[in-house]
Structure formats: C-alpha cells, structure tokens
Task: inverse folding
C-alpha cells in the first residue's frame, strides 16, 4: 500500500488529477515487468507466454509487454492492429475469435499469423485458403471445448456443455471426426483450449488442458509422427480481488499443471499461454475524485467521476466482480479508522442509472468532497475497455515507473477537457 500512496501523492502534486481531469487510470510498469518475469520463472523454457490484448488494449502497455518478452493474443481485427502498432511481429501473434470473417482468415494465413479454428464451417474456409497460400507459416489448430463444466461465474465459463467457444469434443462422434480431420491435413499442427477464467479452479483448468494433451498424443499416434507440435493452453488464471496478495500465483498454477499434466514439462510440445487479467489487473489502479457526498436512508453516498462507464462489469454484476476501494484525503493521505469515522458507504459513479455503483454498503472511513477513491486491481478490463472513449472526456491514463520519491508518471492516453469536447460540438 505504501507504493500506491506514493503514486497518488505524486499525481496530486503534479496536478495530474484536478478539477478537470477527475478520474485517471495508472499502470505500474515496474510491477508489470515483474509480473511477466514471475510468469516466465514459473514455467520451463518450452512455454511461451502471450498477452490477451482485450485485457488492456493500450498500445503503450502492449509495447511494454512486448519488450518484457510476451507475445500477443488477439480476438478481433482491431486488436490485431493494436498489436501491430505496438511493434509485435506476425510470428508472435495468435488470432482467436469465434467469428472470424473470410478476410480475417486470409489476413492471418497470408501474413503467417497463427490462429485457432472455432468450428467446421471455419475449417472449410481455411481449406480453400490453404490452396491459395500453401506455404504459409501460420501455426493452425482447433480450439477444443472439453465440455467439463463451468466455474463460479457462469458468464466467464468457457468449457460448459453448451459453450459458444470451440469444437465440442464430447458430442456424438466428434472426437473421431476431429482425429480424421487432423490425419487428412498435415498443416494442422496445434490444439487449443481455454478452459478457465475468473471463478474457475486451477484443477478444472488443468483437467481441460489434460484433455487436449491426451488428444494430441492420440492424434500423433494415429498419424504415425508428431504432427501436433504446439499446445495452446489459453489464459484465464483467476485473480484475487480481495487483497494485495497474488493468489493463485503463476508458480501455483505451474505446480497444479505439473501434477496433473506432466507431459507439458518434458519439452515434447511447445506450450503457449494467453494470460490477460493475471498479468494486468494488479498492476493498475483507478483514482477518482469525490465530487459530492450526501446521506440517504441512513447510507453515506460519495459521488465520483468513475462508474459504469469504466467499471462496467462491477456495475452490472457486482457480486461476481466486486472492487476493493481505499479512500484518501485531498493531499493523498490514506483515510483510516484512526483518522476518520467508519460508516456504511456507497461509492457512486456519474452515470444516470441506479446501478452505477463502485461499491455498496461498505464500511469505509467517511469520504468528503475533494477526497479521492482508489479502486484496486483494475489494470485489466477496466480503464482500457469503455463503452465509448469519446463519451469519457475527463478520463486519462498514465504509466508509473521508479521507486520511493523518484516516481515518474507519464501520460499514456490524453483525456479531452470539457472545452475540447465543446469545441467539437
């Protein structure tokens, strides 16, 4: 918490957050680099880690992650363009989407960008493109749905019997049909699954990865050689939003995989991951100023400038995506039980609907106008994924590097002032 207090105090002293720019997102690039290092340290050299661009689609963040050694997993043409703008070469990018157009597929195959096939209709399109580009270096494989069940959050569970993602392996004669498909197409050299996400146990994730590892072995045995060389085991490592503790860690995940799928650790396969939230979340915070406060029905309400337009998941699914918040006074000093009365508090955003709340009925030190609220663990899927950036004139994003009193805060994305917006009207 000490570093976060130094960050907010530096932002206040530098007038980065003020009466105009009343909400900011900050990415700790030093923390980001350490997280990537932790990921690589937890796994052997046959693992290669990519970052799910959708988790934080800011070019400066993506560029830093590239420098730290990560590839890019993209799920749309826009994300592909962002990855290219961040300097990623084609060989370090993998394209995942259940709705790739023919042009999307052609772009990948023509430019040696790897991809995962979602369904048989997509396979038919790729069959045609492979005749057009027989020498492509794209690593192509199927995304497999092992249909092993969901986790605690149904909307982020991707391995249920009826999931929209991937080829349903357990339906009918699908497994043998898939083996036949691979036998007939030597250019299919990968298998992919994304079993877990937030709310999924590590054992569930390992179970799904075990399924595709066994399938790869079976396909290779029937082909008579190692046709499948890559296993893409997806991302989805859960993040602890309840405290500063990083749990599960990458080392925890590696240990579960090693116990359940030891073949991954033998160099037989290149193993690719697609971590997103686990890389970005704990390295980002959102700081917003309290504009007004009032009491209503015995509840203290603090109205801020950061709500559903930034905390979209939290506003619409508060039980699944709770956010931890800390209050600071106007000088950036943390508010505690020793300094302020603890009262039941709603922290609200600026949007005009009742569910626009960061937190509800939490026991917090009393917030006053011109205080600040820090929302923790928001580096993934929050300040880089708004409904529409043009509707957010006062939200800027900054990076922070350095230690102690030598912090350097730099603008990643400029926020328009009200005057800027008015001039465009």
Result:
């Amino acid at each position: 918490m000490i570093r976060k207090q130094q960050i907010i105090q530096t932002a206040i002293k530098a007038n980065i957050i003020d009466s105009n720019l009343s909400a900011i997102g900050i990415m700790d690039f030093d923390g980001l680099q350490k997280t990537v290092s932790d990921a690589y340290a937890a796994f052997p050299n046959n693992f290669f880690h990519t970052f799910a661009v959708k988790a934080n689609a800011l070019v400066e963040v993506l560029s830093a992650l590239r420098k730290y050694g990560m590839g890019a997993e993209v799920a749309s043409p826009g994300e592909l363009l962002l990855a290219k703008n961040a300097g990623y070469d084609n060989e370090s990018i993998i394209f995942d989407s259940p709705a790739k157009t023919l042009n999307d597929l052609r772009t990948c195959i023509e430019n040696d960008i790897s991809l995962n096939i979602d369904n048989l209709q997509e396979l038919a399109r790729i069959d045609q493109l492979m005749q057009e580009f027989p020498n492509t270096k794209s690593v192509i494989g199927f995304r497999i749905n092992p249909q092993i069940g969901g986790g605690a959050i149904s909307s982020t569970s991707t391995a249920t019997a009826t999931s929209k993602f991937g080829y349903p392996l357990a339906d009918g004669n699908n497994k043998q049909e898939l083996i036949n498909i691979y036998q007939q197409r030597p250019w299919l050299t990968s298998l992919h699954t994304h079993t877990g996400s937030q709310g999924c146990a590590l054992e569930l994730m390992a179970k799904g990865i075990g399924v595709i590892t066994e399938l790869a072995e079976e396909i290779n045995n029937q082909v008579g050689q190692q046709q499948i060389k890559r296993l893409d085991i997806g991302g989805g490592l859960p993040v602890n939003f309840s405290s500063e503790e990083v749990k599960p860690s990458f080392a925890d995940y590696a240990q579960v995989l090693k116990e359940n799928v030891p073949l991954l650790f033998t160099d037989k396969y290149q193993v690719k991951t697609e971590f997103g939230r686990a890389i970005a979340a704990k390295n980002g915070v959102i700081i917003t100023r309290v504009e007004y406060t009032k009491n209503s029905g015995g509840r203290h309400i603090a109205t801020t400038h950061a709500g559903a337009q930034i905390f979209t998941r939290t506003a619409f699914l508060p039980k699944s995506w709770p956010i931890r918040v800390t209050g600071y006074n106007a000088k950036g000093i943390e508010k505690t039980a020793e300094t302020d009365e603890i009262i039941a508090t709603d922290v609200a955003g600026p949007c005009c609907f009742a569910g626009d709340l960061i937190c509800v009925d939490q026991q917090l030190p009393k917030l006053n106008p011109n205080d600040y609220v820090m929302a923790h663990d928001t580096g993934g899927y929050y300040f880089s994924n708004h409904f529409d950036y043009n509707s957010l004139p006062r939200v800027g994003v900054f990076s922070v590097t350095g230690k102690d009193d030598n912090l350097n805060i730099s603008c990643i994305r400029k926020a328009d002032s009200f005057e800027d917006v008015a001039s465009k009207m």
In short: The first strand starts at residue 23 and ends at 28. The chain has two domains: 2-27+282-420, 89-275. The radius of gyration is 23 Å. Residues 202-223 form the longest helix (22 residues).
